[in-house]
Design a protein that fits this description.
The complex is a heterodimer of chains A (187) and B (215). With 187 residues, chain A is mainly beta. Chain A is built from two helices and 20 strands. An eight-stranded mixed β-sheet of chain A has the order 2-5-8-11-14-17-19-20. In chain A, strands 1-4-7-10-13-16 form a six-stranded parallel β-sheet. A six-stranded parallel β-sheet of chain A has the order 3-6-9-12-15-18, with no helix packed on it. In chain B, strands 2-5-8-11-14-17-20-21 form an eight-stranded mixed β-sheet. A seven-stranded parallel β-sheet of chain B has the order 1-4-7-10-13-16-19. In chain B, strand 20 and strand 21 form a beta hairpin. Chain B starts with 6 loop residues before the first helix and ends with a helix. With 215 residues, chain B is an alpha/beta fold. Chain B has four helices and 21 strands. Classes of the chains: A mainly beta (187), B alpha/beta (215).
Amino acid sequence: MNGLLRPIVRALRYRLRASRSGSKIQLGRGIQFRGRLDIRGDGHVIIGDDVVIDTAPGDFRSFVTIYTHAPDAVVTIGPRARLYGARVSCRYRVDIGPDALVEEAGIADTDFHSLDRKRGEPLDEHADHCRVVIGKRASLGARSIVAKGVTIGSDVVVCPGAVVTRSLPSGAFAAGNPARVVDKLKA
Amino acid sequence: MDGRFTTGKLLSFAKGLRSSPRHAAQMILAVIRGTAYAFYFRIARRSVIIRLPFLAYERVSINGPGRVEIGPHCAVYANVFQGLNIVTLSAAARVTIGRACSLGGLTIRAARQVAIGDRTMTAYSLVQDALMCDSASMKSANASGRLVEPVNIGRNVWLASSSCILAGTSIGDDSVISQGACTLGVKVGGFALATGNLHTRSLSIEQLLKLKGCA
């Protein structure tokens, strides 16, 4: 009974919070809150219809986090996307496409700190070249990382443990640190 | 190190009890906790068999419909705040862990088969025999015959921190998987060092030790 009630209670709680936030948090219809969702920051978060929010497989302590670090930051999650313990940090813009699968991966569109000794804000970042786009039906494996400025095409598979620092074409299978296209998936 | 309770080990435990009571107390608690886990799984989940003695210094989490067997004299330690986390993704999945293994921060996700040999030592690492754990993705992967393959880890293997052992990997006895290494569909021979993400070629540990003057 607990397993049935908890998603319902979660859904009510998040919708209440979304309604209090004005237009900053927009939740679509039919979202399944199988795990906890933590949204922080003043930015905009738009979650599409029928998205699945869940923990990493078997790890009930993990949860989906979406943190925005500026009022003009925008995170959009497309319809029917599945997030399992995903961690999203957004300073500018992060777009996750429809039917995408993100398993326990980290996505960040900023380096957070500069390379110089003071470790201040990065000076060379701009919304145009930091935006992260995850394509339709793309899959990000466990413990992978997507860095700033990356565009991942549709139907891409990113191997667990990969660190994606460059954009990947549609249909690619990428693995490694830094991630390289291993081969193209059959069409 | 074969994990048996020899007289020598009992004597050294008694000495340890006197010299470091705190560690001895932690060990006793680990034995009690491990025994409780073994009995809990024996009663609540028939498909999970943990053989005693089993020491649990950190949390043990075993989920999923598949079969899990853990050999005797294994111990679970904390590594990067995590203990042992096993998930079987299907009823046909099978996870076997040999005897006298030191498991710290280990996460296993099995869709088909993961086998770990005796005396294996793990740090914060991931062992996964399917590329993606989501059931819909696994179905499409099975349909395309792609990348849901068993993982076999030999005896006395060391999985260093942040390593990923993925589908189709076979690791020989006495090998070492380096920190941050990621293996996918490769065979690592015996007594070899595997580095890199993705790992492609192993180094012979015997040669390395000779170069270092340690062999």
